[in-house]
């Protein structure tokens, strides 16, 4: 089911709920998932606040150096550049609401302005000999956390070019009247190396961390969609009962009218057969609706709780017809069999792991389970090629794959992440490993504390 289909179903569901009695309106299921692509865009208010902080800091530094230390400083040109930054803040603040999210190109242009404005201030205050030259790394780091790699690389190249120019061309560093502080070029070159290294290292590190966070957010959104689909299916019995409740009254009216028609027409050969058919079919519909009305309560009685053995049977049954034998092997048991609440996330997660094992197995998948007073454990073992050694420690990360799915042993990605996330939400600890003999199978162990399993 696609996201568009889920939205359309949600709209139909909302329209149906608006005509339901109040008791059924509590069946609403939220279907809106935040768009992670939208969340990665920079919020205008964030940039405006950061720039106001920079304006205050730049103004304070210029005033302190010029009027407290009384060092010769081109105050007016410096404040012209600071005023430009303040004017841009005011313009953007009045032009857009505070919650406005900037497209990548607009964010790039604003960060480029900040870098050039800071480069202008450094040009008038000593270039790379100014201790504040370290701040040239800030626009690149901000870009790396929110903008595409191409724009971040462009901004980093421009900043490096500006830093290179500042190492050669700049006004003298403000110092005491009639005094100069000559610094050897080797020192300036060392500062240049430090700045370029900082821009490269912090930029790459920030981009990498942000990229992993974006992938994780996208994968979690996919997980929420899967879980909501399972919750939709779980809620269908209540929806069917609501439909039966609403249709009961008009159907009873139809049955009453049909009965009166039969009484009035008597044995009229022209209509008696049709009226009899109408009555019998209306009675049949009433029986069907009666069963639908009791569906929710029957499901709650028979299906709300699920013993461990029944859970194993339920998650393995859909995968038995694919040419792979599924062996069920109960292990050591101590105490009564644990019974859990029916949890769509656990059922989906275990089913996904079984499906994955069937896909990679050569002939057999073995499911073992055991329990005692403290833990409940399920172990899945296949006789396939096993997990690739280079990724075995990263299995379960979103979008993690090393080979195309068409290759034998490849195709580890979002499915395992969703299964792992759903099972960990229920309190399980999951371990991925290969068999002791390389290339003869993989093992997945899911282990719950007994109380966590029984609470679902």
At a glance:
The protein is α+β, with helices and mostly antiparallel strands and 456 residues long. The protein has helices spanning 3-18, 36-39, 44-68, 75-95, 104-124, 138-146, 149-168, 185-265, 272-293, 295-303, 308-316, 344-360, 414-425, 450-455, and strands at residues 305-307, 325-333, 339-341, 364-371, 375-382, 429-434, 442-449.
Give a verbal description of the structure.
The chain has 456 residues and is α+β, with helices and mostly antiparallel strands. It folds into three domains: 37-219, no CATH class; 241-303; 305-455, Heat Shock Protein 90, CATH 3.30.565.10. The protein has helices spanning 3-18, 36-39, 44-68, 75-95, 104-124, 138-146, 149-168, 185-265, 272-293, 295-303, 308-316, 344-360, 414-425, 450-455; strands at 305-307, 325-333, 339-341, 364-371, 375-382, 429-434, 442-449. A five-stranded mixed beta sheet has the order 2-4-5-7-6. It has a two-stranded antiparallel sheet with strand order 1-3. A hairpin with a 3-residue loop joins strand 4 and strand 5 (375-382). The longest helix has 81 residues, at 185-265. It starts with a helix and ends with a helix.
Notable traits:
single chain, 456 residues, alpha+beta, Heat Shock Protein 90, 5-stranded mixed sheet, two-stranded antiparallel ribbon, 7 strands, elongated, disordered N terminus
